[in-house]
Automatic annotation (TrEMBL):
The keyword Transcription regulation does not apply. The chain crosses the membrane at residues 7-37, 49-69, 90-108, 114-132, 139-159, 179-205, 226-247, 259-276, 288-307, 327-348, 369-389, 409-432. Keywords: Membrane, Transmembrane, Transmembrane helix. This is Putative integral membrane protein. Residues 5-149 form the Dicarboxylate carrier MatC N-terminal domain. The keyword Transmembrane helix applies.
Length: 435
């Protein structure tokens, strides 16, 4: 009979495969497998429930609930419309403005999934009006969301930091200019480069100006209050952490940074939004991505079981054997980057790939740990353009009911990630060979 560690690894693979082929949330299968295998491993009922990654759940729930108010009352969408309207007389600049709008939208807190879902229809609609390539529009939405959505103060960055904390990497080390920052910076640079190349190849500088573009309606009183709340919460999150990194000897700043954590501040923002009646509570709750939360936390149960039983150590040991004794080599970086890209073709980068790959990366003997985490995260998002992945599917959904355009973009979104991976791998090899 197979040992428990082998069964856990097979369960992770089976959860992803079943979720993809049967079109049922990966997390549901992962939860079932986690309970079955935890029973087989002899874990008590209390320890089985403790496998649920509670910190990740609260991060995802609190941040998306808070920003759900800004999405429900149209504040973020209205802000993007005003930014686009201001660039109407400079058609060559419009794709750049679109990209910056998506970066800011995802970067101030709601994360990349919110940008996929809520800005894709708007960008695709304007792309039709100005005769801009829908492929360029897809790059603007997807790469813009990834570029902004993984900084340490937004949803993606907080989830990444939560995953690192689960790996027993101390929070200050994970947050202050190391792994989380490295991942966020890598995402921004890589996806901005993808946008820049796409802008030139797809001739974004030759689009037509929009004639008689209607001026967006001004912000309502509720939307103005929402803007103040979003800015206030964002500043309270970023300032203590930033000042603490600049003044590491200050115990007061360290205490403030710990106390004013994003989860707590998001709940303060939720209460303030309810008291100020900026939007309907039920509509705000509809913007909580429950399917993503179940996927990440459900798979997290299996990952935590794998860590507890030593399955992750076994995989890391195998990778270390393949790499050999040279911890300075980059072979393991290429291996892990290739694996994350392959997984992300059919599964969510943040919901499935990172939770699976990060625990393995933490156990690998290498001098390039920050680079390893960054490559795993970045290469996972490169193939996330695939229409079979959650990100690509949400971008494709923004096209609407145009069947011909949807088919054309569907094919392009299959080809694009392959081209990106090849170019990125060659560029990575070139850069690392010069070090």
């Amino acid at each position: 009979m197979l040992d428990i560690n082998t069964l856990i690894i097979l369960a992770i693979v089976a959860s992803i495969a079943l979720g993809y082929f049967i079109k049922i949330n990966i997390g549901i299968f992962a939860i079932i497998f986690a309970f079955i295998l935890a029973n087989m491993a002899g874990l008590s009922s209390g320890k089985q429930l403790a496998l649920w990654p509670l910190n990740l759940f609260f991060i995802l729930f609190s941040i998306t609930y808070f920003y759900g108010f800004a999405i429900a009352n149209g504040t973020l969408n209205r802000g993007a419309q005003h930014a686009i309207y201001m660039s109407r007389h400079f058609p060559w600049l419009m794709p750049v403005i679109f990209y910056l709008c998506v970066v800011v939208f995802s970067g101030i807190g709601p994360g990349h999934y919110a940008a996929f879902a809520f800005l894709s229809p708007l960008i695709m609609l304007i792309a039709t009006q100005i005769r801009m390539s829908k492929m360029l529009a897809a790059v603007i939405v997807y790469s813009g969301a990834c570029a902004g959505g993984f900084n340490p103060f937004t949803l993606g960055g907080r989830v990444v930091n939560g995953m690192l904390e689960n790996l027993n990497i101390p929070a200050p080390l994970a947050l202050h200019y190391t792994y989380t920052y490295a991942i966020g910076l890598s995402m921004f640079l890589a996806h901005t480069a993808i946008f820049a190349v796409s802008y030139l190849l797809l001739r974004g500088y030759r689009i037509q100006a929009v004639e008689n573009m209607a001026r967006p309606a001004p912000f309502t009183a509720e939307q103005k209050r929402t803007l103040w709340l979003v800015c206030g919460v964002f500043l309270l999150i970023i300032l203590p952490a930033l000042l603490s990194s600049l003044l590491p000897a200050s115990t007061a700043l360290k205490a403030a940074s710990r106390a004013l954590n994003p989860t707590f501040l998001s709940f303060i923002g939720i209460v303030a939004s309810l008291l100020l009646k900026v939007a309907d509570e039920r509509k705000a709750m509809e913007n909580i991505p429950w399917s993503i939360i179940i996927m990440i936390c459900g798979l997290g149960m299996l990952i935590n079981l794998a860590v507890d039983r030593g399955a992750v150590d076994q995989i890391a040991h195998w990778v270390n054997d393949v790499q050999g004794e040279d911890s300075r080599g980059y072979g393991v970086v290429y291996i892990m980057g290739g694996l994350s890209s392959a997984m992300s073709l059919f599964a969510s980068s943040m919901g499935a790939v990172m939770p699976t790959m990060f625990p393995i990366a933490a156990k690998i003997h290498t001098e390039h740990t920050a680079l390893l985490f960054s490559v795993i995260a970045a290469f996972a998002t490169f193939t996330g353009y695939s229409p079979f992945s959650s990100g690509g599917a949400l971008v494709l959904a923004g096209v609407g009911n145009d069947a011909a355009e949807s088919r054309r973009l569907f094919v392009q979104l299959i080809v694009l990630p392959i081209a990106i991976i090849i170019c990125a791998a060659l560029l990575l090899m070139l850069v690392l060979s010069l070090r």
